[in-house]
């Protein structure tokens, strides 16, 4: 049986990348990034958190190769190595917003339309999100307090390594997405968040519903759609002594003398903040020409 990866739900498996970061001390940490297409002069980028790649000099991740008919080839992966990382990404202009963007197209890490036979890099099957999936301010306001969400990423680094697939998790909004939580352009979600989940896209997913007829009632049906509500960056933990703390979702699992228990509440940066990185990305693109 052949899986249709062009359908919206299945295409989401190719939106994210598992980031492996190496620092000067040779420690390796993992996090989540997702492909976002600005179009225009910038092209595609990887969105993640600052704290995922901060201090890293070397970054690796994998893309799934594509067939000549532009279909994914699960199990056929190509590892991408990005050196001098600090020269190829920008941070959100507000130091209090934990977002960063890594250049893809302008960094020439892959060449669209090239194949291994003609001496270039192989084609990759990549799904990307774009600004059309970011709700406007009015659309955020129209959302309900309780919205079902999905999170795509790599909790504690888990993934289907053979097929290069992430894990999808499900939850609900814990605060209204349009209301600034504690004065920041953030909201909370009720979802299991663990190390490695940093940088995961938070999506409102509306599945397609079938067309039904009967007794004079018809449901006209509709196509599945997604909205990019935000980017996960932190979560709440409870210490065994009862203290509750807000912690960046760590990228490494480090043995500690104290025990912290996640309470499955995550902090999400509103997706509109991604667009604030457009100007610094354009500037960086011009500098690397």
What can you see in these coordinates?
The protein is mainly beta and 289 residues long. It has one domain: Beta Barrel (Thrombin, subunit H). It has helices at residues 8-11, 50-53, 137-142, 278-287, and strands at residues 16-23, 28-37, 44-48, 56-66, 72-83, 89-91, 100-103, 129-130, 148-153, 167-173, 186-190, 201-206, 212-214, 217-219, 225-239, 244-248, 260-270. The strands form three sheets. Strands 1, 2, 3, 4, 5, 6, 7 and 8 form an eight-stranded mixed β-sheet that branches. It has a six-stranded antiparallel barrel with strand order 9-10-11-17-15-12. A hairpin with a 5-residue loop joins strand 4 and strand 5 (72-83). The N and C termini lie far apart (45 Å). The relative contact order is 0.19. The model is unreliable at 110-119 (pLDDT under 50).
The name CATH uses for the topology is Thrombin, subunit H
Strand residues, percent = 35-45%
Q: What is the highest CATH level, the class?
A: Mainly Beta
Structural category: mainly beta
- Gyration radius, rounded: 20 Å
Number of DSSP helical runs: 4
Distance between the termini: 45 Å
Label the CATH architecture: Beta Barrel
Number of domains: 1
Shape: globular
Uncertain segments: 110-119
**Annotation, overall tally of beta strands:** 17
The topology string of helices and strands comes to HEEEHEEEEEHEEEEEEEEEH
**Mean residue pLDDT:** 84
Estimated helix fraction: under 10%
């Amino acid at each position: 049986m052949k899986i249709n990866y062009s359908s919206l739900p299945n295409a989401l498996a190719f939106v994210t990348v598992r980031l492996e970061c190496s620092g000067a001390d040779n420690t390796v940490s993992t996090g989540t990034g997702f492909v976002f297409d600005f179009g225009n002069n910038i092209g595609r980028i990887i969105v993640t958190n600052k704290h995922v790649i901060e201090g890293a000099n070397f970054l690796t991740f994998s893309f799934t190769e594509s067939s000549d008919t532009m279909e994914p080839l699960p199990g056929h992966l190509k590892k991408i190595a990005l050196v001098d990382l600090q020269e190829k990404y920008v941070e959100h202009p507000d130091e209090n917003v934990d977002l960063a963007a890594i250049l893809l197209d302008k960094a020439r890490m892959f060449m669209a339309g090239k194949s291994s036979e003609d001496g270039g890099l192989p084609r990759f099957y990549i799904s990307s999100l774009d600004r059309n999936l970011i709700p406007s301010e009015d659309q955020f306001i129209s959302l309900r307090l309780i919205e079902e969400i999905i999170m795509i990423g790599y909790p504690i680094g888990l993934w289907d390594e053979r097929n290069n697939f992430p894990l999808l998790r499900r939850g609900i909004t814990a605060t209204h997405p349009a209301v600034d939580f504690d004065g920041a352009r953030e909201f909370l979600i009720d979802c299991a968040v663990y190390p490695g989940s940093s940088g995961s896209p938070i999506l409102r997913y509306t599945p397609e519903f079938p067309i039904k007829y009967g007794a004079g009632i018809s449901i006209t049906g509709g196509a599945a759609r997604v909205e990019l509500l935000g980017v996960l960056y932190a979560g709440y933990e409870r210490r065994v002594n009862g203290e509750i703390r807000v912690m960046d979702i760590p990228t490494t699992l480090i043995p500690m003398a104290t025990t912290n228990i996640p309470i499955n509440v995550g902090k999400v940066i509103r997706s509109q903040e991604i667009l604030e990185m457009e100007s610094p990305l354009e500037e960086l693109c011009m500098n690397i020409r």
